[in-house]
Amino acid sequence: MTLDDWLTRTATKEEAFAALIGTSQATVNRYRHGRRVPRPAVMARIAAATGGQVTANDFHGLGEGRSAPPP
Description:
The chain is mainly alpha-helical. It is 48% helix and 0% strand. It is built from 4 helices and no strands. Helix 2 (14-21) crosses helix 3 (25-32).
């Protein structure tokens, strides 16, 4: 399940999720929309916060077939 799907299904706000994983709302937004892939330590916190429903595999290939704005 993607982070976007999880946040939508659980009605979790980016700000609240950011506080859970120890990052900023802007960073969660980048993860959510495939503009950034979490580092391993953050990915572990995402997996824990989502009860294992969002894993590193869910971020694999985000850049493929998706149009992301240039950095």
